[in-house]
Amino acid sequence: MPSFPRPRCDTQEGMSDFEGQAAVVIGAGAGIGRAVAILLAQRGASVACVDRDQDTAQKTAQEIGPRAIAVSADVSDETSVQTAFEQAENAFGQVHIAINCAGISGTTGKQSHEVELDDFDRVVKINLRGALVVSQTALRHMLQHNYGRIVHVASIAGKEGNANMIAYSATKAGMIGMVKAQGKEYAETGITVNALAPAVIRTDLVAALPDEVVTYMTDKIPMKRTGTVEEAAAMLAFIASKDCSFTTGFTFDLTGGRATY
Ligand SMILES: NC(=O)c1ccc[n+]([C@@H]2O[C@H](COP(=O)([O-])OP(=O)(O)OC[C@H]3O[C@@H](n4cnc5c(N)ncnc54)[C@H](O)[C@@H]3O)[C@@H](O)[C@H]2O)c1
């Protein structure tokens, strides 16, 4: 009979304990990224608040206090992402967690035959190529320590496809596929790669969308409401915790009952 490690049942450490760990949160200047950066810090992590908007990254870091640094980086520029991870490593010694919340919706409200390819390329560069840049950079740091938690924020649009949001839907589906492959590639290293697929969460990104687009998305949610950034942050924190140790390559649901598969 093979022996298996005993499951941990202590509640003193684990999902609520990030003491001694450092996180790089990309897109930490606003919305979901800001919320998870603050939550991880409240639970003991040191946090590099990374955003292409230096001012908002700085604001989040200031809100957190001495255990945070602010770094300006754009996921469409790999050199800036590499520099951000180096700065985090220099400040904190090791990067245990990378959470990628950077994303844009691109132009919405156009059917595929009307979509401008330049706009499509812009969304691909940030949402999909940017996700690969974040994973690659995080992996190169984490492989040195055989431990890491990489989490990308995808979207329900990537599972089901939102009409008239082709670039967004396609890039989030690509991100989900990337996470599946990376989960398998690094499954034996102590590094997990997962994603979160939210339905509508009330943030600036959603506030900027036309009302009819938000209604279209909310109507599909059985709970008939948008999610909150606190709900997204809580689930991201769990996925990024030591306790989430037997799940990789997976996209977690956060949809108020919309995606029950
Ligand atoms: N809000 C929702 O309803 C919802 C639903 C599903 C998925 N998502 C995804 O969650 C993630 C976060 O969304 P949000 O609603 O918090 O958005 P948000 O616009 O409120 O915040 C996104 C942050 O990312 C930063 N950012 C954007 N592009 C960047 C880049 N190229 N490099 C670095 N930083 C960049 C922005 O400056 C901003 O601070 C996105 O990937 C989004 O697609 C959001």
UniProtKB/TrEMBL annotation:
Its EC number is 1.1.1.-. It comes from the Bacteria. The keyword Nucleus does not apply. Keywords: Oxidoreductase. InterPro entries: NAD(P)-bd_dom_sf (IPR036291), Sc_DH/Rdtase_CS (IPR020904), SDR_fam (IPR002347). Coiled coil: none annotated. One of its GO terms (molecular function) is oxidoreductase activity. Belongs to the short-chain dehydrogenases/reductases (SDR) family. This is SDR family NAD(P)-dependent oxidoreductase. It comes from Tenggerimyces flavus. The lineage of its organism: Bacteria, Bacillati, Actinomycetota, Actinomycetes, Propionibacteriales.
